[in-house]
Amino acid sequence: MVHALLHRVGVPRQARRAAALRVVRQDPAELTFQELARVLEMPIQTLYCWLRRGLLKGRLVSVGRQHLWLIKADEAEIKRLRQIRLASSLETQDDNPTNP
C-alpha cells in the first residue's frame, strides 16, 4: 500500500537487483539456468530435466528469500552439453521419421 501511494505521487521505486546479480559465485564459470539456457540457445526446462537426470551438476544457493541453481559451465562443459543436445535432437528425428 505504501509503495502504491509513493508511486502515485511520483516517487520512483528503488530498482531491485535481480538475485542472479547478487549471488556470490565460487567460480566465474558458474551460470544460472537462465544464463546457461541463453548460451546454449535451449529451453530452461530441458536444463532442469538434465539436472534431475544427472547430466548437469549444480549447487543450490540462497539469495535473500530466493533460491538459484548455479551450474559450473566452462568451455569444455558447454561443448559437452551442446553435444548432448545434438545427440538428443538426432534421436528425436530418428524416432519421428518423416515420409517423403
Q: How would you characterize this protein structure?
A:
The chain has 100 residues and is an alpha+beta fold. It has one domain (20-90): Multidrug-efflux Transporter Regulator, Chain: A, Domain 2 (Orthogonal Bundle). 50% of the residues lie in helices and 16% in strands. It has five helices and three strands; from the N terminus they run ααβααββα. It has helices at residues 2-8, 19-22, 33-40, 44-53, 75-95, and strands spanning 30-32, 58-63, 66-72. It has a three-stranded antiparallel sheet. A hairpin with a 2-residue loop joins β2 (58-63) and β3 (66-72).
SSE arrangement:
Elements: H1 2-8, H2 19-22, E1 30-32, H3 33-40, H4 44-53, E2 58-63, E3 66-72, H5 75-95
Antiparallel strand pairs: 1-3, 2-3
